Every structure is written in C-alpha cells, then in structure tokens.
Task: structure prediction
Amino acid sequence: MSWKQTSRDARQGTLVRVGRGLYAAQVRNSQGVRPPYIGEVVKGLVSHGLEITESGAAAANALGLTTQVPIREAFLTSGPTSRVKVGRQVAELRHAPGWQLLFPGKPAGSVIRAIAWLGPERSEEVVAAARERLSKKEIKELLAARTLIPTWVARTVSALDPSNDSLFQSQRFRDSSDLITTSVANISLRFIHRPQHCLLAF
Result:
C-alpha cells in the first residue's frame, strides 16, 4: 500500500493513526466502526522486533495479589519508554531490563514481574500464589531461570524449589545490569497484519 493511499484512508477514517508513521485499521462490526483495542495494537508491535509483555501491576493482578486497576494500560518493553494512542485509548510502553521481559505471556514470567513490582516485602505472598496457580512444569521453568534474574528475585523464586537445593546459595547470579536488552533504535518497521486489524509503517 502506498503512502498516498494510506493518507487517503486515514482521512476517510478507514485507518487510525497510532504513532509516528503507524496506522491501524478500524474495526467494523454490526454496531458500526470503532478503533481496534489498544492491547491488540501493542501486541502487534512484537512483529516489529520489540519485546513487549504485561506490566508488573498486571502480573500481580493475574496472580490475585492486587485488585488495583490502572488508569491506563501499561506494558513493559525492550524499546524506549513511549506512549501509544488509539482514538481515546492510551497505553504506556515502559522500558524494562531484559530479565523482567522473560517468559512473555506465561505464568512463570508473571511471577517474575509481580516480584519486581511488589518488592521483597511481599515476596512470600507471590510465592504462595505461584504454588497455588503454577503447574509443576511451570515452576520448573521458573526455577531454571534463576541465573538470569537479580539475586534477590532469585532467592524468592528459590522458595518454590521442592528440593530446597543448598547449591543455590553458592551459585552466581547475574545482576540485571549485566543483561543486554535489545536495541531497537535502528529497527525498520514494515507491516503488521492481524485478523481484526493491521498496522502499517512507512
């Protein structure tokens, strides 16, 4: 699709601008036309090379550790902190270190992000919620990631280890500053297509 066609569609309301050079298709249904859900648009950015996942608050909420409802949706990303706007919907993309982006969309990742957001003071609550909600396979996956997360988070995760392995105390864990997050400064955006929306970039 040419830039001229994109501009024409945007003026006619077929597309809605969601960022600099980024457009999403309006959703048509029996009730008329509406902008796409902003969460779907944000997820579409993953196809452009960004790592994006739920925020710590959303992770804690998913684990039943908070009933707090944020004013606007927020996500963690490997890219720079920014905002995405779709119609009246606004989402915040907050830059986060690589370890907070582990296991996107998985319960193991939600536990890590919930620990990071709630802090060490509520680590026992996170452990209790993880024991209740995660399968043995998911707990094993989480335990295997202890070398990729900060020491204080790894200690909390280690409480889920049924063997209570003493080797954990002597193991070296990388500090979050040692992790290299993906640079997105030179990523070239191309085209996103989803069943209910498409995201274009020129």
Observations:
- Residues 165-202 have pLDDT under 50 and may be disordered.
- Residues 137 and 165 are 17 Å apart (CA to CA).
